[in-house]
Amino acid sequence: MKSLVLVIPRHELFGTEPSPHGFGTDRLDEFYETICRRATFIPRSDAERCYQFKQVIPYMLVAHGSRVFMLHRYASQTEARLHDKYSIGVGGHIDLGPDTGKGAEIPEIIEAGLRRELHEELDLNTEYSYRPIGYLNDDSNDVGQVHFGLVFLVRCESDEVAVRENDMMEGKFASIDELTEAAPKMETWSQLLVPHVEKVLKC
What we know:
Layout: E1 4-9, H1 10-14, E2 22-24, H2 28-38, E3 40-43, H3 44-47, E4 53-64, E5 67-73, E6 86-87, E7 90-91, H4 106-121, E8 122-124, E9 128-137, E10 147-156, E11 161-163, E12 169-174, H5 176-182, H6 188-193, H7 197-202
Parallel strand pairs: 4-10
Antiparallel strand pairs: 1-3, 1-4, 2-9, 4-5, 4-7, 5-6, 5-12, 8-11, 9-10
């Protein structure tokens, strides 16, 4: 059975406006509402090579106080483009899984996918809350052209957070200065998000 992922037609998402670049907040409500009304599922194999669609990716910034959880992905992990890269985002594709429920609405599906990705990558021994804070888009490369990030801030009540797959990556809570220092070694979306982290954490 083919894996089905949540996508939004590019023309539905951006309309006649130029596609944005980087991290933004100004059109978040508009984009989120459009995704909830117009998103659909197609085979992932088609989505990866069809530039008329944007795969919707929840991208979670996990924070405790003024620090953000930073991942260092080893060369042993499966996604080759992320080998030896740092990241401040936890996320992935939204697929039709057992936790979405038959007949679930798109907002429920997004939240179920968000929670699934969060708990697949991290062991959170703490209470947490989350909310959407912005979006990420980068059409400057082949990978970015078929993905659209919905950025969520996950606020943890304690720092009892660890990575689940220690053979694939390591992680720790890092200060703004540490994030800035590591930025050149980060994957693209994290690089685009780092300059905005301090402001985001104050909201």
